[in-house]
TrEMBL record:
Domain of life: Eukaryota
Protein name: Aminotransferase class I/classII large domain-containing protein
GO biological process: alpha-amino acid metabolic process
Residue span, Aminotransferase class I/classII large domain: 69-402
Pfam families xref list: Aminotran_1_2
GO molecular function annotations of the record: kynurenine-oxoglutarate transaminase activity; pyridoxal phosphate binding
Cofactors, names only: pyridoxal 5'-phosphate
Keywords annotated in UniProt: Aminotransferase, Pyridoxal phosphate, Transferase
InterPro entries on file: Aminotransferase_I/II_large, Class-I_PLP-dep_aminotransf, PyrdxlP-dep_Trfase, PyrdxlP-dep_Trfase_major
Length: 416
């Protein structure tokens, strides 16, 4: 099957609703008289005005037309002025090479991933994912019952040779080929890895050779600690093989619940149809607040803000690393996170950390996440724990890691 037919065939079950298509037409023809409009009348809503002050002092006031748009249904693809702005941003940051791309707004990257996976995977379909995997994705996959093929990572992210091996073996034994690869390339959750540019290029070539899609879940793309931003899969994409998820959660607000999917326009059409019959669209007020922010802050100001966020997490990471060295040298092993918010730590000698993380740590007043959370099969024994440096203060990290070290020593003693 050629690639364009493949893209067009995906999720052919999803159809656009007639009512929602009128909502979109209506939003585009503001002066038309509509007897089709079944939306609630926004003048009945109990809001007079919404005022917001952004950091730096910019104030906005939502009244009249903007207030009713913020409180009203919107087109499922997204609030039109924000869609325009976000398309400009995607052009600015990623400069997609092929023309047939488009975007749809989602309630964050998790919702986007879940909809993409639901759209593409039928029961039993083979799919590849970087392991360990963000547990939200695992949760979205489990009811879809795909054939889950884990692709391991090292300190440079997922290993292309492992993808090639899986695909080649399947091709030679006439097994169905994986439809999609899930990858969380920058500041991977839970590993903190950043996939190197050369690996990204190799993986894109493998996707061409073995005809799979790439689901690029990249909510930490602006939270990396490298000199130069990594090249995204979207930038490498020449024909619409990449489905890219951006999110404002890590750099603007997690609670506004907004993300953007950028993909081939046929895929975006199907995803928009899916939005119509599920969340309908992300919060109009959130979309308005983001639109206003992007409209008042220049790209340079936004970039400066992202740089500040990077500096914040980098200094937190450095504190965590120096205290980890102080307390856990010899007891555990870890990589230096190149992005994101987590240290992925292998506890030496302890074959399964569940008891340690779930009982001992909690009883001593500290919380860490046992690595089981990031395995498709959660019952498998795990030696890793995930530590976050996002919220804890240096004093708290110091105290928590000294307790953790004591508990690991006790666990090891039990084994002797
Ligand atoms: C890898 C990964 N994907 C998706 C999400 C969810 O992001 P959002 O808030 O945009 O839904 C997270 C949040 O922790 C994450 O770590």
């Amino acid at each position: 099957m050629d690639f364009t037919t493949f893209i067009t065939k995906i999720a052919s079950r999803r159809k656009s609703g007639i009512l929602r298509s009128y909502a979109k037409k209506f939003a585009e023809h503001k002066n038309a008289i509509s007897l089709a409009n079944g939306m609630p009348n926004a003048t009945t809503f109990p809001f007079e005005e919404i005022s917001v002050t952004y950091k730096g002092g910019t104030k906005i006031k939502l009244t009249g037309e903007e207030l009713s748009s913020s409180l009203q249904y919107a087109p499922s693809q997204g609030y039109l002025p924000l869609l325009k702005k976000m398309r400009e941003f995607q052009e600015h940051w990623y400069k997609p090479i092929y023309n047939e791309w488009d975007i749809v707004l989602t309630c964050g990257s998790m919702e986007g991933c879940s909809k993409v996976l639901e759209m593409i995977l039928e029961n039993g379909d083979p799919m590849m994912a970087q392991v360990p995997t963000y547990d939200g994705i695992l949760g979205a996959l489990i009811p879809l019952e795909p054939e889950f093929i884990g692709i391991e990572q090292d300190e440079d992210g997922i290993i292309p040779a492992n993808i090639a091996k899986v695909c080649e073996e399947r091709r030679c034994s006439d097994k169905p080929m994986p439809k999609i690869l899930y990858v969380n390339p920058t500041g991977g959750n839970p590993t903190g890895t950043v996939l190197t540019d050369s690996r990204r290029r190799q993986i894109y070539e493998l996707a061409e050779t073995y005809n799979f899609l790439i689901l690029e879940d990249d909510p930490y793309s602006f939270v990396h600690f490298l000199e130069k931003a990594p090249t995204t899969f979207l930038e490498l994409d020449t024909k619409g093989r990449v489905i890219r998820l951006d999110s404002i959660s890590k750099v603007i607000s997690a609670g506004l619940r907004l993300g953007v999917i950028t993909a081939h326009k046929e895929i975006i059409k199907k995803l928009t149809a899916h939005m119509e019959t599920t969340s309908i669209h992300p919060s109009s007020l959130s979309q308005m607040l983001l639109y206003k922010l992007l409209n008042t802050w220049s790209v340079d100001k936004l970039q400066k803000h992202f740089n500040d966020v990077q500096r914040f997490y980098r200094s937190r990471r450095d504190v965590m690393l120096s205290l980890t060295e102080k307390h856990l040298t010899g007891l555990a092993e870890w990589n230096v996170p190149k992005g994101g918010m987590f240290v992925w730590m292998k506890v030496n000698k302890v074959k399964d950390v569940m008891e340690l993380a779930d009982k001992e740590c909690i009883s001593q007043g500290i919380f860490v996440i046992p690595g089981h959370a990031f395995n498709y099969d959660r019952s498998k024994p795990e030696q890793h724990i995930r530590l976050s440096y996002s919220y804890a203060t240096p004093e708290e990290i110091d105290k928590a890691l000294s307790i953790l070290a004591k508990l690991i020593r006790e666990e090891i003693k039990k084994l002797d």
